[in-house]
What we know:
8 helices; Aminopeptidase
Amino acid sequence: MIYHTLEQTDLRSLYSAFAAAFSDYQVNMDFSFSHFERMMRRRGLVSELSVGAFDGEKLIGFSLTGLRVRNGISTAYDIATGVAPDYRKQGVTSEIFLREHSILKNRQFGQYLLEVIKENLPAVGLYQKQGFQIQREFSCFQIDKKRLTPCVRCRVERAGGIDWKQADKFCDFEPSWQNSAASVSSVPEAFINVVARLNGEVAGYGIIEPETGDIPQLAVNPEFRRTGIGASILAELACNTEAEKVRVLNIETSQDAVAKFLAALGFEHYVSQYEMILPIR
């Protein structure tokens, strides 16, 4: 087995390796190459920080890594780590991690961040063994889009962009990496933004990926909550997706009011994730 960074590996090869590694994953990861390409841009892929395992010239395992400054700390993000089924339980993942950690330490990164499905106990255990600690727990919710109906008290309209400074004041928690302003802004063509106005004032906003129905951000001005504005935003977002279901992703489990709001609309919880961090020393 040969291990090295991925700056000489083309995106099509990464896509093929990704599809093989996640062919039996708990969550459906069977999507198009164009979607994969957008996902890599959205999450900030840096090939020279990413590590691959090769059997001859065939990429059979990988750690795809993004880079940003998060809360003032130079942060690497594990976009995806996977190994093809036939090569598992051979120490490939552990070797990839050791090489990844060495690269990040030499580049003087402050921390290494990842998300993992809570029920994926082998993966959670592996990361904990490597020194990762759970920071937050996220819940994801979904609903048939036909079940969402608007409120008539406010006007909801499509917007060319989001005022992120204003949006920060509406949010009750820091979005996960893939849902952050930096991630959404990196592929603006992939999203539709809507803004709700009440008496001429911005009362809330929402963002949806039309292809998948995924909602990375949804927020309402605290002054206008419990008035149907959130439901109206969701209904408008649902009108702008090709998918049959809409999904609200990575809501902190500490945000009980958000979970209750979604449940009242008929959303069902379908998966939970841990956000885990490894300080790099």
